[in-house]
């Protein structure tokens, strides 16, 4: 859910790339006299709901509806405040953003066709992009710009969250999977006997495993950390190197596990250089960034609360009150 609602601009760009059924428009809320229409809400919610229908619990979809509405309301407040402060967007910045949207859509013709499918014109899209950029500039000028942290801030954060700055233990894990069935456990135990009698584990995986990938990789799962395979719990980390597990029962079937290598975890210190998202960085820089994110969220929430207190907001739908 955390990653579901990011910025209105991103959500809108995603929404206009997909079809949504026509709906009768209605007013969900008014903010200082400006309406938030059901059609605006559905531009974002309908594509999400279509994708999530068979994979996301109803409660999560319900929460998404509230978060999308909240983001629309916040964006309306930010755009109004940007107008009040005479914040504008340069023509070049606006054009570059629109060109990037066209490229991401696969070209200008596809982009325009998708807009038409949504019942939108290029001018509609341009206006929404402009508003999103105005809101971003307002936040940068009045929230982000004055944020500062010092050495003590990130040192304190590191100490309070020291477990987050640790490389976990890793094991090189091999597995054989036997699907659930009346004889599944018996079959798994029989395979274990063959391995202990001399059959190579990887050969056994190729011969018996019901995981299709085992035919090619001999059951190798690579280096695994705690939590990466929750279905197996702590079982892989209780094994000694070379040890074969008893059948590990799960809702899907039984797993036979073998660990061949172990890399102990390591507590990172602020001066350590590590790789994060494919780039080399220092632990202190990660701590600084996380402190900055916390401070930004705190200040942003406070800024929004002040805008809400000054605004005249009328929410028409009980679900969003």
Give an overview of the whole structure:
- With 321 residues, this protein is α+β, with helices and mostly antiparallel strands.
- It folds into two domains: 8-149 and 287-320, Porin chaperone SurA, peptide-binding domain (Triger factor/SurA peptide-binding fold, Orthogonal Bundle); 166-267, Chitinase A, domain 3 (Roll), CATH 3.10.50.
- Helix content is 50%, strand content 16%.
- It has eleven helices and eleven strands.
- The protein has helices at 8-15, 38-52, 58-84, 91-105, 108-117, 122-144, 151-160, 184-196, 201-208, 214-217, 283-310; strands at residues 27-31, 34-37, 166-167, 170-179, 220-224, 248-249, 253-263, 266-267, 273-276, 279-282, 313-315.
- The strands form four sheets. It has a four-stranded antiparallel beta sheet. Strands 2-1-11 form a three-stranded antiparallel beta sheet.
- A hairpin with a 2-residue loop joins strand 1 (27-31) and strand 2 (34-37).
- It is elongated and about 80 Å long.
- Residues 1-23 have low confidence and may be disordered.
